[in-house]
Amino acid sequence: MSLLQLEDVTRTVPIPDGDPLTILSGVDLTVEPGDRVSIVGRSGSGKSTLLNMLGLLDLPTTGALRFDDVDVRTMRSGRRDRLRGSDIGFIFQQFNLLEGRTATENAVVPLIYASGPSFWRRERLAREMLERVGLAHRLDALPGSLSGGEQQRVAIARALVRSPRLILADEPTGALDLETGQSVMDLLDEIVRERDAALVVITHDPAIAARGDRHFRLVRGTLTPELDPTAVSYELVGSGSDAGSDTDAEEAS
Ligand SMILES: Nc1ncnc2c1ncn2[C@@H]1O[C@H](COP(=O)(O)OP(=O)(O)OP(=O)(O)O)[C@@H](O)[C@H]1O
């Protein structure tokens, strides 16, 4: 049984007074427990759209999206939301921590929506997770007093505190220097391995992509296997205005 499966997925969005815009097409991806998948793609290639789908935030326009072999499109939105809360953890480039709340208060947030022991033991679970990411001495620190690497560790603790089976990381080292980024990735890899969770990392950085076990690139909404992620040129994965965009929308305009 696979954890997550996309089969021939297309995502189109309506354009006022125009043909629908195709953002993803023919995407096939299977993620198994313990998998470490990396996806590179330049600005506008459809990464956020794909991430939203992997995180069950958006549904395919056509094609199949299955979680635990259950067609996500047949689920009521409440069930999808609960599944996302309990089984999927998100890590972003900008750590998205609540300012004015301590590290522990930030890490506890996902457990506020849990039930049973996870809810009753939430403070302890949050503290244990922060200890696991090396922040035992900063439990009461506010985000503003933490370094970038420490803030990302709080965000990792928050993402993992419910023991999700799938972790989605969107440019997790994008706001960190090289060395801090590597140590954050080391930690993430370690914890993911310990828990046999699956990790999908979306990144512009070939060095981060190379850490995965299976590599893909997203070009104009099409996902293809990448055999040698270290050989991906900057031009392909580059971000920002110098790299240009990658969509039909840009081409059409
Ligand atoms: N609802 C929408 N309506 C119109 N265009 C959209 C919509 N959603 C996405 N797009 C376009 O589809 C393309 C892919 O979007 P997406 O946000 O997935 O790209 P991305 O690879 O995450 O880009 P970036 O790295 O710059 O964030 C972009 O050109 C975007 O403008």
In short:
By secondary structure, this protein is α/β, with parallel strands linked by helices.
Number of strands: 10
Largest sheet report: 6 strands, mixed
Spans of at least 5 consecutive residues whose pLDDT stays below 50 are 237-245, 247-253
How are the strands of the largest sheet arranged?
A: 6-7-8-3-9-10
- Gross geometry: globular
Radius of gyration: 18 Å
Beta-strand fraction estimate: 15-25%
How many helical stretches? 10
- Helix and strand content put the structural class at alpha/beta
The first-to-last residue Cα distance is 43 Å
CATH fold annotation: Rossmann fold
What is the total domain count?
A: 1
In CATH, the architecture is 3-Layer(aba) Sandwich
What portion of residues is helical?
Answer: 25-40%
In CATH terms, the superfamily is P-loop containing nucleotide triphosphate hydrolases
Assigned CATH class: Alpha Beta
Order of helices and strands: EEEHEEHEHHHHEHEHEEHH
Query: What would the average pLDDT be, to the nearest integer?
Result: 89
Bound molecules: adenosine-5'-triphosphate
